[in-house]
What we know:
CATH architecture of the largest domain in chain B: 2-Layer Sandwich
Largest sheet of chain B: 8 strands, antiparallel
Distance between the termini of chain B: 106 Å
Strand order of the largest sheet of chain B: 1-2-3-4-8-7-6-5
Largest sheet of chain A: none
Number of helices of chain A: 8
Mean pLDDT of chain A: 80
Order of helices and strands of chain A: HHHHHHHH
Helix content of chain B: 40-55%
Structural class of chain A: mainly alpha
Number of strands of chain A: 0
Largest interface: A-B, 53 and 42 residues
CATH architecture of the largest domain in chain A: Orthogonal Bundle
Number of domains of chain B: 2
Oligomer: heterodimer
Shape of chain A: elongated
Radius of gyration of chain B: 45 Å
Order of helices and strands of chain B: HHHHHHHEHEEEEEEEH
Shape of chain B: rod-shaped
Number of helices of chain B: 9
CATH topology of the largest domain in chain B: Phosphorylase Kinase, domain 1
Low-confidence stretches of chain B: 255-260
CATH topology of the largest domain in chain A: Arc Repressor Mutant, subunit A
Mean pLDDT of chain B: 81
Amino acid sequence: xxxxxxxxxxxxxxxxxxxxxxxxxxxxxxxxxxxxxxxxxxxxxxxxxxxxxxxxxxxxxxxxxxxxxxxxxxxxxxxxxxxxxxxxxxxxxxxxxxxxxxxxxxxxxxxxxxxxxxxxxxxxxxxxxxxxxxxxxxxxxxxxxxxxxxxxxxxxxxxxxxxxxxxxxxxxxxxxxxxxxxxxxxxxxxxxxxxxxxxxx
Amino acid sequence: xxxxxxxxxxxxxxxxxxxxxxxxxxxxxxxxxxxxxxxxxxxxxxxxxxxxxxxxxxxxxxxxxxxxxxxxxxxxxxxxxxxxxxxxxxxxxxxxxxxxxxxxxxxxxxxxxxxxxxxxxxxxxxxxxxxxxxxxxxxxxxxxxxxxxxxxxxxxxxxxxxxxxxxxxxxxxxxxxxxxxxxxxxxxxxxxxxxxxxxxxxxxxxxxxxxxxxxxxxxxxxxxxxxxxxxxxxxxxxxxxxxxxxxxxxxxxxxxxxxx
Lengths: 201, 260
């Protein structure tokens, strides 16, 4: 793709932003938690992306690049609102404790299953918002942005192995949250070993 | 293929589900999963979490038409902003250009305009006695001038022009010698200064022998430097004649007497 004239650049920008707008918006909405802030974040991202358009060398990397800009805009927004981004990775969420629990029993009734799913969704959303910012971003970029591991690595500016670790820890955290919920609700039984000293953090 | 333990396969489960592992590692994880109830449970709970995440993604409200329109219009409405580092570079470059222009202007306007002087001289010549010393003897004129000036002007000698006389005058706050020549009723004024005359402003051409040429009030002006002095010739003669005067005068300038 040629980046020669500003008309061509505008055309390329429109074409690429059309493709990325929905994933960006989904991610922004889950990051901010409300539609107004999400729209502001997406708009700020797009303005920044357009202003720095000349820095985009490879159109193939546009999606990761948009998310990189989104991350930068989001972290700036957190700093402005004095909400300090928590970037330190959390400890492993004791996944070995999973061995002590029976798998989630099959729920045959459709209505019951829907209620359980709704409850799980709320738990997952809450657990996701407790993640350190970089792990939360990696997970959201994958789930809501649809980015591959390589794209997440580009967007977050970290090695592929780090992306794998962050996603693994994030999933372990969500898994632990669901298990906790299932125990609280009596869906699965708490084993003696788990009662003694298990916690998320 | 090497068999994986839980501690190795566990961290790879998410990448395995996302099809992000290479073929060999993927097979190793799959083999471990087949044999490990713990990791099977992890996988099951991961699947629950993934299903929740998918539902959350699917139930996210779509982009509003207003946001879509605003974002798409950015390329048309938003002025392209030069990145900060280029802005600083451009500012620095602009500052350098302005400084150079300022220096050039200062130099230009601080350099006296030869034509302004010539214009002034022509009007002065019309009002007052042109010479203080009337003589056709170049040597006598030189002696007279050297007694009155801080430098030793050399009076040009040319067979075609008759020296009428000399006087002192001031050019750009410096005292210079003024010599009046005549040829066929045409008067030619010659100024001799200790400084270069060719660096003055107002000339519009340069002859091959570095004689600078200009015109003022219908009179031609020629300037040249020779023997550490500057010469400025003003007359009604054509430029070629002034250049010929300059060439001849340059050749005929005698060696400066010693002790002066």
